[in-house]
Design a protein that fits this description.
419 residues, alpha+beta, 12% strand
């Protein structure tokens, strides 16, 4: 056996793309592909470097991702925005310029559309940016318009230890970056444990691997539909003794594989048995992966998979909608309102979501039982149910059942006859 020359070793290295050189394997696409498939059962694909544009692409091109983010959660946020109120320290509803600008943020949005768009950004990238156009003159210190900035186009300008964020830059509009400061830009985000990044951590990162499986399943199903997937097995029909001769098997195989037999409609010389598979095992496996991906996405965004897949019965649909409100939409709105209250520098006032007015979250029967036990007036019950008051004295008196008395039971009743 002869010695291997250095030039041959170098050629071998180039041929297998640096397999024997650990330093060169860091950015080796060939090895990454090999390791991805060889270790598929041991480790998941690393999505730590998925950029923010890629997350937006998932949203645009994947119907399941868009269905969960837009149709299910963000739409619920928009619906619930109708119940936003501004209250003072006594919980009395008040008027203020901050509510006026929220009702009509700009010429393109009303309150409902604006909150829905904010939620979409927040759910895709894990953060959301709102730019406030400041007023001048008598309106100085107020925001006269609000603009939602696409999160994936914003670059955070890092400062120093005393001022971690010194500003924001909109990459798609270089002339706009000078106006975006921490004072006029509301920044909301999910906590990100990565110390090197101020961006929020998207829930899509957690479910990205499952989303990739879902996309591969869709592509595989589309390919099967285009090319014709195998959905049956054809075997020679056994004789009375249950056996099939080699001659019969070979003859059937020859007939089926003959040139020009693609999409053939005709007769075979011998009887055959057809075994329906329904779908190929690979397709069924991918179908399971797709359902697994849907489960992962729903879990990451805090909703039930049954909720997303839409139950047919009305009572189930109503309960599903209630769960979306409570588990996903209300926490998002509360986060927006807390950030917006701080953003507008409100003193002794705050924005709240009045859940008492949300019909779906109310339980009239249970609440009426509580009000009856508390001896509430007829008008109090009517107001709770949304009916008009009765302007009569009796309607404002407590409803006390017969046999109920108040005071010290040990004291004598002045009307009681002494023995």
């Amino acid at each position: 056996m002869g010695w291997i020359k250095n030039s041959e070793i170098e050629a071998l290295r180039k041929e297998i793309k640096g397999f024997y050189d650990g330093v060169r394997n860091v950015d080796n696409e060939y090895l990454r592909q090999v390791m991805e498939f060889s270790n598929a059962r041991l480790q998941l694909v690393d999505f730590s470097e998925v950029n923010r544009d890629e997350l937006v692409r998932y949203y645009k091109r994947n119907g399941i991702v868009r269905g969960i983010i837009d149709t299910t959660i963000a739409s619920a946020v928009g619906e619930l925005s109708d119940y936003i109120e501004l209250v003072d320290k006594d919980n009395t509803v008040v008027n203020h310029w901050s509510m006026d600008v929220l009702n009509k943020p700009n010429d393109l949005y009303n309150r409902r559309k604006f909150l829905k768009a904010w939620a979409i950004n927040r759910l895709i990238t894990g953060d959301a940016f709102v730019y406030g156009l400041e007023g001048v003159g008598l309106n100085k210190g107020q925001f006269k318009e609000l603009f939602l900035i696409p999160s994936h186009e914003v670059e955070i300008l890092v400062g120093d230890i005393l001022k971690p964020i010194r500003g924001y830059k909109l990459n798609s509009n270089a002339s706009f970056d000078a106006k975006m400061t921490p004072q006029n830009t509301m920044f909301s985000r999910d906590y990100n444990p990565t110390s090197k990044s101020y961006y929020g951590l998207s829930k899509l990162y957690s479910a990205a691997y499952m989303v990739q499986l879902l996309e591969k399943a869709d592509k595989r199903q589309n390919t099967s539909l285009d090319n014709g997937g195998v959905n049956a097995l054809i075997t020679p029909k056994a004789d009375a003794t249950g056996t099939v001769t080699v001659m019969q098997r070979d003859q059937i195989r020859e007939e089926l594989n003959r040139k020009g037999r693609s999409n053939y409609n005709g007769f075979l010389p011998d009887p055959v048995d057809i075994h329906k598979l329904g779908d190929t095992p690979v397709d069924l496996g991918l179908l399971e992966a797709s359902h697994y991906a849907i489960n992962a996405l729903c879990f990451a965004y805090g909703i039930s998979v049954d909720t997303f897949l839409a139950q047919s019965k009305y009572e189930n649909a109503k309960e599903a909608k209630k769960q979306i409100y409570e588990m996903a939409a209300i926490p998002l709105i509360n986060e927006f309102l807390e950030d917006y209250t701080s953003f507008c520098n409100l003193k002794d006032m705050k924005f709240i979501l009045n859940t008492d007015k949300i019909e779906l979250l109310r339980n009239p029967k249970e609440q009426l039982e509580i009000m009856t036990a508390a001896y509430c007036t007829l008008n109090q019950k009517l107001e709770y149910l949304g009916y008009e008051r009765i302007e009569e004295p009796y309607a404002d008196k407590p409803i006390i059942p017969m046999g109920v008395s108040f005071g010290d039971p040990n004291q004598y009743d002045i009307n009681e006859t002494e023995i």
